Amino acid sequence: MAENIVETSVKGKWIKVPSLNVCGKHVVVRGRLLKVAVILDEEWLETELEDPELCVKKLKEQGPQGLRADVFTFAQKLPATRPKYEYSREFDSVAVVQTTSFKDWWERLPQETRKNVRRSQKRGVVVTVKALDEDLIGGIVGVNNDSPVRQGLYYAHYGKTSDQVRKDQSSFLDRSEFVCAYLGDELIGFMKIIYRGDVASILQFLPRASHQDKRPANALIAKAVELCAAKGISYLTYGMLNYGKRRPSPLRDFKIRNGFEEILVPRFYVPLTGWGKLCIKLNLHRGLLYNLPQSAITSFVTARTTWYHLKQSISRCSLTVERPNSNRQTECSSPPTGSNNSQSSFGR
Questions:
Q1: Phi, psi of 272 (to 5 degrees)
Q2: Do 66 and 76 share a domain, yes or no?
Q3: Whether residue 341 has pLDDT greater than 80
């Protein structure tokens, strides 16, 4: 259990950080004022932490040059929803579809959602499962560049090169699949699913906003549920359903309309220092936003979204002024890359 260096992606950028290997899992530390030890890529691993006491012991033994943390946090894995440990705990609000039967899921959907899946078929969207190859990488580059702002945030993968996209998408390839939505030869949305035993988790889900009228997002979700049911997987997860106090959101509404429900999974917080114990008591371990009133959070998110869109508009105006009219009139965009090798039952 020696300290080593691992590479992880933070806000779209790969960085190297020190880690502590405990029972085959890498523990890394995040935060500045409050240093929180977490299991690297915990939400994508096949198994949960086997020996929390050993991990807490090793973290407390770290010297001045070691991996110092104030709080250690870890979660249980579905379907284990009953707390196993006596540590201070809260619950993660996981967005889950039970996928044992595609028919049961389909029949519980709102009528409008079922119509959207059918609309995607009628409007020419073909959904297929692809391996990560050069065609798919080129298609993902195009999807990334569809908009620099997504869900009110600057999109960290906007403008990335093919090499950068290849590296981003190469994690967990031995137990993942790419579900792709095509309109002709154009990739108009994709989803990366990671299989974790009886659970499948959506790591990335990115439809093109410019093709929203084709409903690729609904088609991708339907195909994902179909795949899980065919493989005998019980759960499909898609991040959180409720993020602290930030409950009303278009993404949350989309998940609910597509059959995702809340399952509460225990998450434990273990203080390692006096400062960590005080922060847990004051709820500071959840971050600043958690302790703000809902109205303040809503105002902040709205202002942030407005600012990003304003920056985007200013940038576009600057580029238009700098380019001669003759150049703008003769420009043409390169066709997007991508292929369609096989068809899904949700393709036509």
A1: -110, -20
A2: yes
A3: no
Q: What is the pLDDT of residue 340?
A: 38
Q: What distance in Å separates the CA atoms of residue 79 and residue 94, rounded to the nearest whole number?
A: 11
**Is the domain of 127 the same as that of 51?**
no
Tracing tokens 């409008």 back to the chain, one arrives at 112
CB contact set of 172 (below 8 Å; sequence gap of 6+): 44, 194, 203
Residue 171 has a pLDDT of: 93
Render pLDDT for 239-296 as a digit per residue (tens, 0 to 9): 999 877 666 788 999 999 999 999 999 999 999 999 999 999 998 887 766 655 666 6
Distances (CA, A) of 279 to 40, 51, 53, 75, 313: 22, 24, 21, 19, 41
Q: Assess whether 68 and 86 both reside in one domain.
A: yes
Considering the domain architecture, whether residues 115 and 155 belong to the same structural domain is answered as yes
Which residue in the block uniquely carries the two structure tokens 């702002």?
149
Is residue 314 a part of any domain in this protein?
no
What is the model's pTM? 0.82
Residue written as token pair 């299991």: 39
Check pLDDT > 80 for residue 54. yes
Say yes or no: 248 and 190 in one domain: yes
pLDDT confidence of residue 51: 94
Rg (the chain; Cα; Å): 22
Containing domain of residue 201, as a range? 96-263
Asked, for residue 307, whether it belongs to a domain, the answer is no
Contact 272, 62 (CB under 8 A): no
- Flag whether pLDDT at 236 surpasses 70: yes
Residues 120 and 227 in one domain: yes
Which residues sit opposite 37 in a β-bridge?
29, 72
Kindly state whether residues 60 and 106 are assigned to the same domain: no
Instruction: Break the chain down into helix, strand, coil percent, rounded to 5.
Output: 40, 30, 35
